[in-house]
Amino acid sequence: QKSDTEIGNHKGKESDICMVGPGVHETHALLRQDKKHHRVWIKQAEKDCRILVNGDAITEEVELFHNDRLVFGSTQLWVFQNPKEKGLEKKKYPPITYEYAQEEIAAKAGVKVDS
User: Fold this and answer.
1) pLDDT band at 1 (very low <50, low <70, confident <90, very high)
2) What is the pLDDT of residues 8-34, one digit of tens each?
């Protein structure tokens, strides 16, 4: 298995993870794994690749944690799962729904969301 994973659209060369949607570049993001310690980081493939982690835009490499919400481009919403993350069994997580993630993004953008 590779320690680096490429995320991109299906145009041009094929990425390891392909997704189609507005704003998803041919090569959009790179995931890096530390398999020994079960850690994962994400970074933009290019400066203009839009990636949100828990509603915050990233501009440099960021470590991912279990249940982090990821947005690629404008419409691709994913939840990162790492069942081997250390200490996972001691943590409690809110139920992650599409609405939860959208409200999180809106709140970080300064939009008031009434629950």
Assistant:
1) low
2) 998 877 889 999 899 999 999 999 999
Task: Check: CB of residue 66 under 8 Å from CB of residue 85.
Answer: yes
Tokens of 25: 């570049």
DSSP the chain: --SEEEEE-SSSSPPSEE--STT--SS-EEEEEETTTTEEEEEESSTT--EEETTEE-SS-EEE-TT-EEEETTTEEEE---TT-TTGGG---PPP-HHHHHHHHHHHTT-----
